[in-house]
Design brief:
It is built from 16 helices and ten strands. It is of the alpha/beta class and 437 residues long.
Length: 437
């Protein structure tokens, strides 16, 4: 099995595509089950955020795995596979490992260095664990990716430029409101992970008064209480929209929450001379497409943020993280090469045991006068001799296999001892890492 990652992000697709690809939290288990039911997919983890949808998989073949995953994504999104292919990026073998570590460290984020992706990866890994779609390979990859992300933030200043997409969105809002958001009133729609992050970021920025609304008033109350904000019943959304300067919308709704009629009514009731700034951080979008051009309002969505990336970390910080990633990729590949030789070593020991057993049967047939105790003594002696002979070579071959180019040792063992190792345990793995499929 080998690693394959396939996805679309703000780099390759606009919001219209991403919102069709987006996978609701409740739909993730079913999608994972559909993925691992495909012929070439053995393991799967799905990451779906406001600006990326990715599948990490362990596959038995590149082309087969690619086709299987693309077909599932096409069926889910309703986008024909031929059209969807133009928005997808594909990473295989070593490149898939590197990509996952760059994602976890924030290097591939819209706001370079943002730490929110770590929580999103952790949630994706947990969801895969819940439905048992992550096996040994993806368990190791996800655990190491999370560790690499923590290292990047602990050992470098990669996150100094901005903590999240919310920070970048507020920078854009500040541009439209004179550069300073202190004392500006704001409304956050949604009390999920992104909504909570928005409330926390707005509070740190000095925005206020701050309101929170959600379809579940209980969740809005809890979030508002934690940050000294005011919870607003969702039925009072229209009135709240008319009274604030900034709206951050981050719901998980599959339909627009901010319709043209609702926004038009709020704009008509406003008394401020400044435009209403609506930061739509949801995928699918919370602002209805036909409402974006209303006068007196500025809408900033994921596409707009992608076009206005700013405050990138210093080159020295990104270089430091890239160095961490490179070292960790090498370590992971070493683990993978060592793991790949294990079935071959096991097959060698099995072969040795079968030879000992065969010779014991011959000995017993030739020397029937041996007592059971004598037979057991001879058997133990033969087994100890074989174990001692194999110990040093197998330890050494594991060490050599963990080094670059170490895949050759497993192949040599199989050839020298004519070992029958099941193809799925070593094919399409180490020999293809770093190479083109």
């Amino acid at each position: 099995m080998n690693l394959l990652s396939i996805g679309a992000s703000y780099r390759t697709a606009d919001v219209a595509v991403l919102e069709r690809l987006a996978i609701a939290e409740t739909a993730v288990p079913d999608l994972l089950q559909r993925l691992v039911a495909q012929p070439y997919v053995g393991e799967a983890v799905v990451v779906s955020t406001c600006n990326r949808v990715e599948v990490y998989a362990a596959v038995s073949g590149f082309h087969g795995g690619l086709g299987d995953i693309c077909n599932v994504l096409a069926e889910h999104s309703g986008i024909p596979a031929s059209e969807l292919a133009g928005h997808l990026y594909v990473h295989y073998g070593e490149a898939a490992v590197r990509h996952s570590f760059r994602v976890s460290s924030g290097l591939d984020s819209m706001v370079v260095g943002e730490a929110q992706i770590l929580g999103q990866l952790r949630d994706a890994y947990h969801a895969a664990t819940e439905v048992d779609s992550a096996g040994r390979l993806l368990h190791e990859l996800m655990q190491q990716a999370l560790r690499v992300g923590k290292r990047a933030h602990a050992e470098t200043g990669i996150d100094r430029a901005g903590q999240s997409v919310v920070t970048a969105a507020l920078d854009v809002a500040a541009d439209h409101l004179g550069g300073d958001l202190t004392g500006r009133s704001a409304l956050v729609i949604g009390a999920g992970a992104m909504g909570a992050l928005s409330v926390a970021t707005l509070t740190r920025t000095g925005v206020g008064p701050l309101r929170v609304t959600n379809r579940s008033l209980e969740r809005a109350d809890r979030l508002a209480e934690a940050y000294g904000a005011v919870a607003v019943p969702f039925d009072d959304l229209a009135a709240a929209l008319a009274e604030v300067d900034i709206v951050v919308s981050a719901t998980a709704s599959t339909e627009p929450v901010l319709t043209r009629d609702r926004l038009a009514a709020a704009l008509a009731a406003r008394t401020s001379a400044d435009p209403l700034i609506v930061l739509d951080l949801a995928v699918p979008r919370d602002v209805a497409p036909d409402a974006t051009g209303l006068p007196g309002m500025v809408v900033v969505d994921i596409d707009g943020l992608a076009a206005s990336r700013r405050a990138l970390p210093a080159a020295a910080e990104t270089a430091a993280v890239e160095q961490i990633v490179t070292g960790e990729v090498d370590n992971f590949l070493g683990w993978l090469r060592g793991a790949e030789i294990a079935p071959t070593v096991a097959a060698l020991r099995t072969r040795a045991e079968s030879v000992v057993s065969a010779e014991m049967r011959k000995l017993v047939s030739r020397r029937p006068e041996f007592t059971e105790e004598q037979r057991a003594d001879v058997s133990r002696t033969l087994h100890r001799v074989v174990q001692q002979l194999l110990h040093s070579p197998t330890v050494r071959v594991r060490q050599l296999a963990a080094e670059p180019g170490g895949d050759q040792y497993a192949a040599l063992l199989r050839e020298l001892f004519d070992l029958d190792v099941p193809l799925a345990t070593h094919a399409n793995a180490v020999p293809e890492i770093g190479g083109k499929p």
